[in-house]
Amino acid sequence: MKKLLVIALLAATTAVASAQTRVSILGDSYSTFQGLNPEGYNPFYPNDRNDVTDPSQTWWDLYIKAKGYVLEKNDSWGGTTICNTGYGRMNVSHNSFLSRVDKLGNPDIIFVFGGTNDAWANSPMGEYKYQDWTDDDLKSFRPALACLFSRLKEQYPNAKIYSILNSELKEEINESCREICRQCNVRLVELHDIEKQNGHPSIKGMQSICEQLEEATR
């Protein structure tokens, strides 16, 4: 009898775990933490010029715990751009967001938190283009973002996709994200009033990101 009860409890626990919403993140340094991203990636956190010192203080851990979800994959690489042109106009097709589309596991929700480095690196903007992308197209932000959403939807047809837009970016990036998200039917979460230290969210900033995401995903 006891054995049957144990088996029943294990089965119930497995069913609950499998029913939990799985979250994956495709991001840059804002979503990194040492040891919690794939090996060889470049994490920003922890950093001696920022007060975030523990994974429990990150926006994504706060959000996932607040919602009762589970982390599927966090594929975040510091300094990466969405498009294939990075700092110094370098070809970054080996680690851009576009190159990591297939690394997100089996998520129910995908957060794309990028565009900051495209803005800071002054990557080319390019034209709005929603199909038939060439390699040259993907060197520019606008066509690359549209292509990214298209590939994510193809690879993860059952996942909800949210694009998170950092605060204090140049308006050219902001308006491009708004337009492309409208055209691609992707929910855009525009952050505001995010406290930062060394250009990255502080503890207070991380909490604010979590709160704004909770509000946007109700």
The end-to-end span amounts to 43 Å
- Count of discrete alpha- or pi-helical segments spanning 4 or more residues: 6
Summarize model confidence as the mean pLDDT: 93
Derived from helix and strand composition plus strand pairing, the structural class reads alpha/beta
Strand content: 5-15%
User: Major β-sheet, in short?
Assistant: 5 strands, parallel
Q: H/E element string?
A: HEHEEHHEHEEEH
Unreliable residue runs: 4-18
Q: Work out the radius of gyration.
A: 18 Å
For the biggest β-sheet, the strand order reads 2-1-3-4-5
Strand element count: 7
Shape: globular
Fraction of helical residues: 25-40%
Structural notes for this entry:
The chain has 218 residues and is α/β, with parallel strands linked by helices. The chain is 34% helix and 15% strand. It has 6 helices and 7 strands; from the N terminus they run H-E-H-E-E-H-H-E-H-E-E-E-H. Helix 2 crosses helix 6. It is globular, with a radius of gyration of 18 Å.
Features:
5-stranded parallel sheet; 6 helices; two-stranded antiparallel sheet; alpha/beta; 218 residues
